[in-house]
Amino acid sequence: MLAVSHLTKRYSSALANADISFVVQPGEVSVLLGPNGAGKSTAVKCIVGLLRFEGEITVCGHPNKSLEAKRVLGYVPEMPALYELLTVEEHLEFIARAYELKDWKPWAQTLMDRFELTDKKDKLGSELSKGMQQKVSICAALLPVPKVILFDEPMVGLDPHAIKELKKLFLELKQGGCSVIISTHMLDSVDELWDSAHIMMGGRIAASRTREEIERQNENLEDLFFQITEGGSK
Ligand SMILES: Nc1ncnc2c1ncn2[C@@H]1O[C@H](COP(=O)(O)OP(=O)(O)OP(=O)(O)O)[C@@H](O)[C@H]1O
User: Fold this and answer.
1) β-sheet bridge partners, residue 214
2) Which of 37, 129, 155, 199 has its CA 20 to 30 A from that of 89?
3) CA nearest ligand 1 atom 18, residue
4) Is 229 close to ligand 1, i.e. is its CB under 6 Å away?
5) Which residue has the CA at smallest separation from atom 28 of ligand 1?
6) Does residue 45 have its Cβ closer than 6 Å to ligand 1?
């Protein structure tokens, strides 16, 4: 479970996150929506422990910067950051060693197969296209089988096969009890996947809805998104 409580992040001049609170239960897919500059990536970076912030964030009950939290937390950044001199396979081995994983090779092979990386396994990070780097980044985040995982604009740069595979994986993670958080401004990419949605605007959560609420109130997430981002908050 992920619990974000009163998250506030200020860069020198801008208030990027203002008093954000939300919870993502095990087996829930939650999307952070919002236009460019709404504060999504900042929130994600605070959650995964890359930025200092005010407020409280816990991952499965542990403070987000603790080792216990890091062991169960996965992160796929907006821009993949691979090691130039490690091959695809070595990236996965590096993660396996860092997390002290046992019997990881079959899962690593499955991930490489699913993301069509097996024939690229000996290529260096510096030799990979942007999309291939993104696929390695996804495989690396999934290898330790996290309990909470955050994807920042995960579909950008992926080919249709990888998008299809990733969507299947989101559902598998959900079925396996993982808390999944996807930050995006591409509403249609997550349309059939989400259980809860938080629409961010100007660093705040302007509206939160569960799928059940949207269906019960006969709302449409896309309409709500444009209502908020082109008009006032709701
Ligand atoms: N390193 C930084 N230093 C100063 N201001 C920053 C920094 N990073 C982001 N900001 C500001 O914080 C605000 C939120 O940015 P953020 O990247 O979190 O938005 P976003 O919703 O992820 O946008 P996008 O969809 O374009 O990725 C913006 O006003 C941005 O200019």
Assistant:
1) none
2) 155
3) 39
4) no
5) 37
6) no
Q: Is 17 exposed, middle or buried (0-12, 13-18, 19+ CB in 10 A)?
A: buried
Q: Does ipTM come in above 0.90?
A: yes
Q: Which of 26-40, 69-83, 125-139, 220-234 has the lowest mean pLDDT?
A: 220-234
Residue 86 lies in a domain: no
Which structural domain, as residue segments, surrounds residue 17? 1-78+144-229
Residues 96-107: what's their mean pLDDT? 97
- Residue 233: predicted pLDDT: 47
The answer to whether residue 138 sits within a structural domain is: no
Can you give the pLDDT at residue 232?
52
CB distance 16 to ligand 1 below 6 Å:
yes
The total number of structural domains that make up the chain? 1
Q: Please report, for the domain that includes residue 33, its CATH number.
A: 3.40.50.300
Cβ 194 vs Cβ 212: under 8 Å: no
39 lines ligand 1 (CB under 6 A): yes
DSSP run (H or E) holding 214 = helix 211-216
Banded pLDDT at 40 (limits 50, 70, 90)? very high
